[in-house]
Write a structure and sequence with these properties.
The chain has 286 residues and is an alpha/beta fold. The chain has helices spanning 8-21, 49-60, 113-122, 139-148, 166-180, 209-224, 227-231, 233-236, 252-259; strands spanning 35-39, 67-76, 80-82, 129-131, 156-161, 184-190, 267-271, 274-275, 278-279, 282-285.
Length: 286
Amino acid sequence: MPAATTHPFDVHLERALPLTRAQRAWTPADGPLPALFLSHGAPPTFEDPVWMAELFTWASSMPKPRAIVIVSAHWETASTMMSASGPGTELVYDFGGFDPRYFRMRYDTPGADDLRRRVAAALPDDEPVHAHPSRGLDHGAWVPLKIMYPDADVPVVQLSMATQDPDRLLAIGARLRELRAEGVLVIGSGFTTHGLPFVDFRRPDVIPGWSRDFDAWTADALARGDVEELARFRSAAPGMPYAHPTVDHFIPLFVTLGAADDPTGPVTTTIADWMYGLSTRSFQLG
């Protein structure tokens, strides 16, 4: 009988847990944490050693945050909502067809009631935020965070997206900006290209032209700090609508830009790779 193969995520945990437990905590002397946009993947991220190493190295390059506010592509609502934060809140397993182990995974972070109050206070009266009584983190939040902060020792609040309008999302990000100076990491979680219906999963190394073109356009606009161009992505970006048949995975980028000190940059690209022909480009701004 062949020996059992160790799961890549178990290998990641063996290496990462001692390092994350020794990671230095943020202090006011560190100044504001950056604002992040990450391409979050799904359960297959747990099977990709390179991607996991990139995410964990990114998290390790910063002091460990006091708390995290994350906006995911996978939670759109009529009005802005915040996830539940009590002990034992269930995760949202919003995927299907994967190994049963992924549906047993937990990410039991500390209670975040103080953070929820702080986020609610930061948002303007014309963008009211409501506390969801039971909804936990969806996979756009807990999958990357479980890799980046595997000890689950940082309080997390997820915000829903009540709009697809880049200007409103920029404004929401701008109201979260002040939290960064308090040791809160603000993250927009999406995917730089997400044309799943148009990907040939039998040929994972093939990068479709629409994906490559959209990624290059995004990288160029970010490098130039052209937020107006990015906001016109529906009509201006090559590769549309194949790169984003729905826009939910691109628009968290605008929360990240809004939360930055200067939405026009400079941008530091932390991950620039491909998964089944989709761009995993991820970046941060100060």
